[in-house]
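Backbone-to-sequence.
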């Protein structure tokens, strides 16, 4: 099971039906395979597995916007990578979903944006380039979905300028469905972080509950605080001691 590029430029990936599920999938992964599923409109979903190293090469090649032809039981199924699940620690792919597509019908897909050119506001005026979105929603025939959309930032000359969807050139192969007023990228002023000296940090305010009558206040600071309170108590006469006996 390996990925290959045919003479027609089609990316193919061999797959096999999978009959192992749940916790037993760890055995599949130990064999160098990646479990996955194929599904789509009017298509009965199938559980499959593909060679992990071939999947990685394919994923790096086409991403989630390129058509892959899965070779499964003498059938070549056109699919898009719909979603991938990664291990939280190793970040390796542990599961993948393929979306079967009809090459004659338009579909919607999220396409990544890519900055090209140099902005004068950044290179000469110390502005900061800020992307407001990483993808744009595109509608097209499956084979016409672009791998990415170029955003020419050289048109940004001043700090505060931005590029919206409405500023992009229209394509004859696909239509951008993201709202035209959506800001894609902007250049903002660079802000210096204020440095506050440690000596200027105020001590945190200690808030305690009100002491009820007949109760003692909580002691803060351990033994030294306790001794201090006892010393203060000894130095302060009680109400009874402060009463002067009447002369006889």
């Amino acid at each position: 099971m390996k990925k290959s590029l045919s003479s027609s430029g089609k990316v193919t990936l061999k797959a096999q039906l999978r009959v192992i599920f749940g916790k037993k999938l760890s055995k599949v992964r130990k064999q160098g395979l990646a479990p996955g599923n194929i599904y789509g409109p009017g298509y009965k979903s199938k559980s499959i597995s593909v060679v992990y190293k071939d999947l990685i090469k394919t994923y790096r090649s086409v991403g989630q916007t390129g058509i892959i032809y899965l070779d499964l039981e003498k059938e070549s199924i056109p699919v898009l990578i719909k979603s991938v699940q990664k291990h939280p620690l190793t970040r390796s792919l542990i599961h993948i979903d393929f979306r079967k597509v009809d090459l004659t019908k338009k579909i919607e897909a999220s396409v990544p944006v890519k900055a090209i050119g140099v902005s004068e506001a950044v290179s000469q005026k110390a502005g900061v380039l800020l992307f407001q979105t990483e993808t744009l929603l595109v509608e097209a025939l499956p084979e016409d979905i672009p791998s990415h959309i170029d955003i020419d930032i050289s048109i940004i000359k001043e700090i505060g300028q931005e590029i919206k969807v409405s500023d992009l050139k229209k394509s004859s192969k696909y239509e951008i469905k993201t709202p035209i007023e959506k800001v894609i990228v902007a250049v903002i002023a660079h802000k210096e972080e204020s440095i506050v000296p440690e000596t200027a940090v105020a001590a945190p305010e200690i808030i305690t509950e009100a002491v009820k009558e007949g109760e003692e206040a909580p002691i803060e600071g351990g033994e030294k605080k306790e001794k201090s309170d006892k010393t203060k108590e000894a130095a302060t006469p009680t109400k009874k001691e402060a009463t002067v006996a009447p002369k006889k």
